[in-house]
Amino acid sequence: MSIAEHQIDGSTLLTSVTDLRTGLTMATELEAESTTANASSNGEIPTLQAGDRLTLDEFLQRYETMPDVDFAELVEGVVYMSSPVSADGHGEPHFDFVTWLGVYRARTAGVLGGDNSTLKLDLDNAPQPDGYLRLLPEHGGRARLADGYLEGAPELIVEISASSASYDLHDKLQAYRRNGVREYVVWRVWDRAVDWFKLQEGRFEKQQPSGGVLKSQVFPGLWLDVDAVIAGDLARVLDVLAEGLASDDHVEFAARLRSDAT
Predict the structure, then answer these.
(1) Which residues are CB-contacts of 186 (< 8 A; sequence separation ≥ 6)?
(2) 87-261 in CATH: which number?
(3) Where are the domains of the chain?
């Protein structure tokens, strides 16, 4: 057999393998569509599957029938579901971040916070952020409770992320920006970095620390020692936060919130 014949056979084989893979992919997709169609036609609500493209109503309808699922979110119309969560890559950093937010909330009347709550942002987005702070509506906050869910954007959202490749810094960032989240904080654990974005003229601008400390513009006194939080030094994180809570900016902010309530 000639070299040319070998080349023709190799090309034919490659084409056959490609066709086979394409056929298998199409068959898998058709099977998934068939399963969903059958469930719908039988009056059953289909379960959530990672990668599903759904509307907000479809997502919530399915999510509410799956009490055993702890985490699922809709970002730009696509369903994301959690894989096993590591302690050092997520659980422990999450705990420190939520503690930091919780202490601020405890010292600032008129501010509420949440942890892993589904937010109804728009027709294509129902994220479940690691944490948030929000102003109550009577103090100018945009987010409101409706049927147990928070509708609208909290003023500040935090996420624990593995690296800059995470969707937290891509699709989710754009969804938060478009829906008016005023500050967005991402702790990139494996990158050993914290990104703090502030919404300015419709764009997220990354803030730079001053003396190693990042400071909120929306919640005066919410200060974060970047090196301390990355090192897991929660005591230092809370010491710096205490300095922020004692600052004139926070004292004035807290007094304004109290006066709004009277």
Answers:
(1) 158, 159, 160, 161, 168, 169, 173, 194, 195, 197
(2) 3.90.1570.10
(3) 1-44, 87-261
